[in-house]
Amino acid sequence: MHLFGIFALARVLLGLLLLLVEVLLELYAHTGISILAWGLCSAYVAAAVGLLRWQRRTSTTYPHTAPIPPKHWWLWTVGVDLLAFTFLLQVVGTGQNIAAMFAMPVLMAAMLARRRTAMAVAAAVTLILLGSAWIEWMHSGGVAAVLFTQAGVTGSGLFLVAMLTGDLASRLARQEQATRSSIGLARQQVALNRLMIDEIPEGVMVIDQQGLVRAGNPAALGLLADKDNPLPSPPFLLPRIAEARGLWQAVEDGFRSGVWPSSGRDVALGQAAIGSAEGRTVRVRMRMTRDHGMEAGQVLGVVFLEDLRAIQARVRQERLAAMGRVSTGIAHEIRNPLAAIAQANALLHEDVPPGPQQRLTQIVSDNVERLRRTVDDIMEVAPGRMQAVMPIDLRTQVQSACLEWSRIHALPDDIDLNPLSVEIGMDRSVHEWAVRFDPDHLHRVLVNLLDNALRHSTRRRGAIAVTLDWLPGKAELCVANDGLPVEPEVEPYLFEPFFSTRSRGMGLGLYICRELCERYGATIEYRAAEPGARRHNQFLITWPCEPALLSANESAEPPSPRL
């Protein structure tokens, strides 16, 4: 489309040039005014101007990246040129060298059409020139050899022009297509790189020596932003950001010295930079490079920012994972000797008479049982292949676990004295809804929560409440106690392994509960009760429910919904 517009403009200029030539011939050569020649030149200029306006008005209909316009545009244009120049050649004769203008349609055909079409146009022009030479020879009786030789040489030159121009146009078209493809791939790569940089959790910024932030991803801007004063979009001056003055001082020192520690440098942001407890510290890594653009030689710094708390949390998780693997191996090695000790102690307990020695064997038995529970807890959360689990009746499992736990802890049967209260929903519309969970694992989760609740409760009537209810698409189990509320600084670490507020605690109970719940698609969380509520601490487990056809025994009514 662009080439066609250039040819349309060239045709207008060529028509104006023909009119100018006629005017000059009349003024200086006194050849006399040829009405027919003036009419042909004026008509050609009018047609060229009309085509140019039409092309510009309708160019928005076609993408300007299209290689050629529709065929009928250039085909009719070439036909009009051939007719106009042929008539003009017959009117003015060969004295004004009209044959040179036939190069216009030949070039247009060579640039906008295939080679065969361009050669056909060149052949047509050659025939026109030979025919014109024959007519002139018949009427004026000139030298035939000169006329036909001149027409043949001109036609041969047009053939050569068509061939060379067609080859150049084909090569340019291939290069243009390759360039478009390369530009498209480059834009796609730039967009992909931008997306990757924007999505990575580490902050990335590009800063020059004047402190101008030329680019930055959302993570970096989020670390530097103040909740009251959000950062502007890059580019902006880093020294003007109050939260980042400490960062700019460190970056400025890096530019001045030209080196940066490979492990990074810890820089305080915000109020932490002036010694306040507020603010945060970031780990900064910087790499310097040269700007080869408009400001050649300008040193740029690519700054990587990461919150120090996130780094410490990641290191802590890696250490916990390593400790977990070591603990699992140790627990596996302890299990067999522990069983041998338990068996030998049981045999010894049978042989010793009642008295102090039997009490010693009982102490050994109690501590062996304690160690066995600890080993079982560690092995329970060890990574392994999960087996297929069938749906279970959650109501029956919860009630049976609560009854067994109540008997083990010798809780009174009298409801008025029992610290445990169990309430299970009895909605008949969801009677056959179930959850996927291993019964033994569910029992372990519930026992851990009940032990924790009993340990921190007042043990008065209703001090511990177990509530099971169904909501649309999910089941909720809540274990609450009336102990003191969990302190805010302790709450984030409740489900962390090896974290315990007791001197003799391992800190694995709640961690095991979370690991087992996540294994079966359930979630567990801690919620502080509303002010004024009797039971301050609530541990809530949520299961996604699914309709399941339970057996007759599983779907039977539980013995009692309350304890």
What does this structure look like?
There is one protein chain. This protein has 563 residues and is α+β, with helices and mostly antiparallel strands. It is elongated and about 155 Å long. It has a six-stranded antiparallel beta sheet with strand order 3-2-1-6-5-4. A five-stranded mixed beta sheet has the order 8-10-11-13-12. It has four domains: 2-180, no CATH class; 202-309, PAS domain (Beta-Lactamase), CATH 3.30.450; 314-380; 391-547, Histidine kinase-like ATPase, C-terminal domain (Heat Shock Protein 90), CATH 3.30.565. The two termini are 87 Å apart. The chain has helices at 2-29, 35-58, 71-92, 103-112, 115-140, 144-199, 218-224, 245-257, 308-351, 356-380, 394-408, 439-456, 509-519, and strands at 203-208, 212-216, 236-237, 265-269, 280-291, 298-307, 391-392, 420-424, 433-436, 464-471, 474-481, 523-528, 537-544, 546-547. It has 13 helices and 14 strands.
Total number of distinct structural domains: 4
Alpha-carbon distance between the two ends: 87 Å
| Structural class by sheet pairing and helices | alpha+beta
Average of the residue pLDDT scores:
77
Radius of gyration: 46 Å
| Spatial ordering of strands, largest sheet | 3-2-1-6-5-4
Uncertain parts: 62-69, 272-277, 549-563
Q: Name the helicity range.
A: 40-55%
The SSE order reads HHHHHHEEHEHEEEHHEHEEHEEHEEE
Q: Shape from CA axes?
A: elongated
Keywords:
563 residues, alpha+beta, Beta-Lactamase, six-stranded antiparallel β-sheet, 13 helices, 14 strands, 15% strand
